[in-house]
Design goal:
There is one protein chain. The protein is mainly α. It has 4 helices and 3 strands; from the N terminus they run βααββαα. The protein has one domain. Helix 1 packs antiparallel against helix 4, helix 2 packs parallel to helix 4 and helix 3 runs antiparallel to helix 4.
């Protein structure tokens, strides 16, 4: 995290609120597509929902800890927080999505494909919630929002 010394306000697209909404939209799309696939596989008996919840819960704290590597910048003059593109997270999700496609479509390993789906969703939910809490903490720390005692 860095503190910007310039007084110019960052564009709305770069501010944390816009980035969080964008990440929420991406998560909603992934959750919808993957949720339909998981439901179909669970209904067909190819996958057990308890395994899915277990994998999701294992990946949730990993995603939550990944909030620490998101590049953020505090703009004191504009009272805004901006986030930059996180290449490591993008590469990890891309690798998992490709792995899901390969295991499901090419190798016909439905169970492993569904495990990867649950891992992706756990990482995404954990990271998004972690980012929201980190941004809120930074806003409180720098006086953008009042501290409640």
């Amino acid at each position: 995290m860095t503190i910007a010394t310039t007084e110019s306000a960052p564009s709305f697209r770069k501010r944390s609120k816009a980035k969080i909404w964008l990440r929420t939209g991406i998560l909603a799309v992934f959750a919808t597509i993957f949720g339909i696939s998981l439901y179909r596989d669970i209904a067909a008996g190819h996958f057990m929902w308890l395994v899915g919840i277990g994998v999701f819960l294992l990946c949730l704290p990993i995603g939550f800890e990944m909030r620490k590597i998101v590049p953020m910048q505090v703009h004191l003059g504009a009272q805004a927080i901006t986030m930059s593109f996180d290449k490591l997270y993008f590469a990890l999700i891309l690798l998992l999505v490709i792995g899901k496609a390969v295991t499901g479509k090419l190798l016909h390993q439905v169970m492993w494909s569904d495990v990867l789906i649950c891992a992706i969703l756990g990482l995404m939910v954990g990271r998004l919630s972690g980012i929201c809490l980190r941004v809120r903490g930074l806003k409180r720390e720098h006086g953008f929002i009042p501290n409640r005692a």
